[in-house]
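anyone seen this seq b4? input:
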Amino acid sequence: MNFASLGLCNDILYSLEKLFYIKPTPIQELAIPAILKGNDIIGVAQTGSGKTASYALPTIQLLQTKPISKNRHINTLVIVPTRELAIQVEKVFNTINQHTEQNIRTLAVYGGVSINPQMIKLQGVEILIATPGRLLELVKSNAVFLSSIEVLVLDEADKLLNLGFKEEMDSVLKLLPPKRQNLLFSATLSTDVNTIIPLLLNNPTRIIIEETKQNLEIINQIAYHVNDDKKGPFLRYLITKNNMNQVLVFTSSVHRADAVSDKLNANGILASAIHSKKSQGARETALKKFKEGSINVLIATDLMSRGIDIPFLPYVINYELPRSPKDYIHRIGRTGRAENPGEAINLVSDEESHHFGVILKKIKKQIEINEINEIDLKGY
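predicted toks r here
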């Protein structure tokens, strides 16, 4: 199947040709025709499956034939959970738009940066990508109006509905006109997503793409029994002893990410934390430095890891274990990409040992937990 068979117009096909998009992904094959027909959608597919283009392409095409909206009255609203995703989605829209005859104005808005430039840029925008909190701030300032929304997209709906956004999402949905096309895209069909489907969607087309299993066999998974008071010194020992030049470290909280970063830097290991409390500029700078190699260690929380994509990342370290086996796979899957081997190291405390056993049982893997009693951590 090719893009021409999905009902896309010549303008969009020309754009795809310029961008070297050859063949649609499974989610695109099913979602694009349904969206062009005006159907509501629930699309479930793993990260990296092409979900953004599956709604961006038909949305841009539909807007090509519509009159330009009144100033600051948005036609299409895309709601996302993080600033990183907002920027990524805006890039997809703009990349497609630059090769079409009628350039549809698109803008991403998010917190952590000054609101005034965003308010100015909203003039003439027809597609708005927004995090919930900043969107409500802009509405309150009369910088944008949602009464003319024709298409609502919830991207990463599983995250939007279970990460403390409920109150903000309820407020946003109350501002929207009742008659509109609703598109929900998610990496998982969580309980929260299942609950909102009958409330938000009208006879939706359901598209469930089975997750492709990651090849975990090429990832060397190692575990060490390390109690909390020794995790810091042992992490520094591992990085120094093994000359690790590019390491992604996962923690379970923002506070711990900062603490780990501070200790590493104090001990001469160049590191930076990336999390939701950092400004957008600080996050982008940290990621850029990590990719370039000017810092050796990046400490991230699970939510922030969505924006980290490095093809040949050699090491991932779980300073603290994730909440679920699925999150564990997502974390260690940051290494071992493109059939390149990688190493995933787990620091397991007494309190985490049972949970680690549950994770291993779920992923059907046996990993010996090594003791560190013989390792001299003095000076680390």
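The chain has a mean pLDDT of 89. The two ends are 57 Å apart (CA to CA). kinda curious what u guys think
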